[in-house]
Records
---
Amino acid sequence: MSAPNLTLWLDGELRSTANPQVNLLDQALHYGSGVFEGIRAYDTAHGPAIFRLPEHMDRLQRGLAHFGHQADLEAMCAAMPGLLATNGLSDAYLRPIAWLGGNGLSLDVEHMQLRQCVAALPWTSHLGETAKAGLKLMTSSYRRNSSDSMPPLKMCGGYVNSLLAKLEATRKGYDEALFLDGKWVCEASAENVFFAKDGKLTAITHKDMLPGITRDSLIAISGAESRAATFAELYDADEIFLCGTSAEVTPVTLLDDRELPIGPITKALAATYQDIVHGRDTTFAHWLTLAGEKRRGAA
């Protein structure tokens, strides 16, 4: 999703996206040696609130640890409320990213310079405006990166795998790609997978999938069972939906050649999730980090 000219935080300073001053010989541009997170801020009665901020930043730090680096999480988090205010955003997508730079193309990473950035962007869903009405999901000819080869975290270079699968799907008229491991379901290119059968909700797990924070939230909200599942089970489901920070709860209405309804479990969970992230349901209020009170008298 493209964005207008915005202010971002880069290595402790505020800069315009029109003049970020990033070195084109930074190692990460050439080798994908970086880690990012996608985090949502939602408008609430008390102002913008960031959803599950500590969990997202902990995952970013775990990714960086594989490169032998640590981010300044305190500084990155402290920058977020100001970015939301400066860019005039209440509902937004926050993108913290840390990458290796230093004008070097060596494959040795531990002594590379670490660069850090946080951006705040207007957002709906990377799947498009019509996604909430249901999307078309295609089994991919690609396999998900193996967790034996790359940690299942948000490593920049690993997302080439997702880009190729997504491109294959969209060229064939679908909205999203589904990774399989033989008969077992892994995940979509950027979302985890849930399905319902005979009134029972299942969150699909696989060793190669991203341990999604939205997925974890929905399991806590719904009490869904988390287990491995075959493609045959998924194909026979009564309801299927994908979930993620950007996608939230997005129903699947076509899996390969099989049409599905948007069922009652999906509808109810999607509505409950929106109530929680916007602070209308306070059951999980501890998941929200307030990013600034609304101005007195503001709507």
---
Amino acid sequence: MSRIAGAPDSVRTAILPVAGLGTRFLPATKAVPKEMLPVAGRPLVQYAVQEALDSGIERVVLVAAPGRDLALRHFARDQELEAALAARGRSQAQAEVRMLATFGERLTAIEQAEPLGLGHAVGCATRALGPGPYAVILPDDLVLGHAPCLRQLLDVHDRLGGTVLAVTSLPPEELRNFGVVAPGVDDGIVVEVQGLVEKPAPGSEPSQLAVVGRYVLSPEVCAALPTLAPGAGGELQLTDAIAATIGTTPVHAVRFEGRRFDCGNPTGMVAAGVAVALADAARSAAVATSVRALLSGMDGEQA
């Protein structure tokens, strides 16, 4: 597996594209941005910001639609709420609300005037911020595990440099919705990327390794973003910018440890909520009992 000479640049900034319309969650997302929908009491964007900061990221940049600043308000200081919680003896809730404000100190926002694709969203950020490198987290992909998914990618970037992608193996019928890796040298965890195909036609997939929700982008990818032409679905695809750099800068994929939930659809959101609740020692027994009772009742109805 190829290595680069010298130490790669540190990745200090994570970009969170959150300008999507959330059409699969209408009518809820008519007024509430999808990234603010809750999973076990916390909005999706909070999980993404938490992962970035836990991975050692120093600054998080939200790429949002005009006027959709609810996420920034979520992370703003609210002294009145903190005081009310303190007066009621809700110390744990008070601490979490105060923690949100410390997260907010690391956040900024950039507008994406039109939803023209992930490549366009990331390009809006990189044009404002400079050449990179940058991490990218898609809040729709919630990954639960012992080590933050992004940290796993950054560890590989620290060794190999270049661009690093999170991948997972998916069944062939699902690959048409993802960027798919053409693999080279593969040690079982880190895969050399020899090619990338966005939303491949059935039967043309180069592998079953789909790119999901976490990226570390080299400056070369950032430089390629302004040159993008519309790709799959008529959108500016981040995959196309990454593919343009293959052969000139290292590109690797990582089979990350952890369980991924596709929170871009209601089914995945429900599954993620149950998983988070089951992982909470204070709630796991009650949640497990409720889930078993629900499933038992459904079996009874079907019978």
